[in-house]
């Protein structure tokens, strides 16, 4: 029986993810590990058991519950890092299904998104060169044209995907409660986007960071749920996916 202890960097290389992700899993108890002094170590045997269990008893991802012909789902996370985690999972599934990807940035920097997606195993440079991935600045589009600006970008990229022979566009935006200046404009944007997605084959997610310390943020997020077909509560230990007719 192999008793070799692996470092966090070694496990990250094996799983094609980042060391920060492994640290987060370890701290949350999602991954078997032991702490020796200040450093984490993972038994190779435990890693192999976890990988085998994932192969033979895979958990159904929330992505498998999406309508792959078209959907618009709100995602609530507790941190900006989790936004990237869910987007990577979402984009990898879209690539596996042979679809074109769209990433809309509000508070995120486009170059930083490229870097983080690449670190998490998505070959951004190759995909952008082949026009299989578009990373757009929605905040800039809003500044120039109001709520119609980012909606038009979603629409134009979806129609471009269709013209290129793709059946569906897999897209993620990452708004926050202040991205449109005030909450009423944000609601108007989400409502307009929802109506557009009804007419165009898009599987779209809108990840928000849930900040319960901010005044009125909870009530605002509840209002936004009505602009989506479902809500995913995405956490480090457990996730729950609810359809609109369930909430």
UniProtKB/TrEMBL annotation:
Organism domain of life: Bacteria
Give the Gene Ontology MF terms in alphabetical order.
DNA binding
Q: Which residues form the Helix-turn-helix domain?
A: 5-52
Q: Where is the MEDS domain?
A: 71-211
InterPro entries on file: DNA-bd_dom_put_sf (IPR009061), HTH_17 (IPR041657), MEDS_domain (IPR025847), SinI_DNA-bd (IPR010093)
Could you tell me which NCBIfam families the record lists for this protein?
excise
Q: Specify the protein name.
A: Helix-turn-helix domain protein
